[in-house]
Amino acid sequence: MNFGSGKTKFVEGFLSYFGLENEISSPTFTIVNEYKNDKINIFHFDVYRLSDSSEFYEIGGDEYFGNGICLIEWGELILDSLPKHYIHITFEKDENNDDIRRFIIENS
Hints:
single chain, 108 residues, alpha+beta, Rossmann fold, 3-stranded mixed β-sheet, two-stranded antiparallel sheet, 28% strand
């Protein structure tokens, strides 16, 4: 994942599907932001500042799994903490056009 590749914009679009588009903020310094409506809980993590998975466990990050949708930026830093099954989305900038992004979507 790269800086400025559109991760937070993606989350913004994801939240807008659930009517939460006015709630978005980057969790860079708070690690996780929680968004809720009457139908769903969405947890937006940015684990870039964590040194390893043990810090993720220390903040109770794994307790969010199963309680809603978890969107995790920089999830490759905590791979051993992730549930057995998850969807991995890679964001890539286009080399020729800075306004274009590519998503590669894979199941674990």
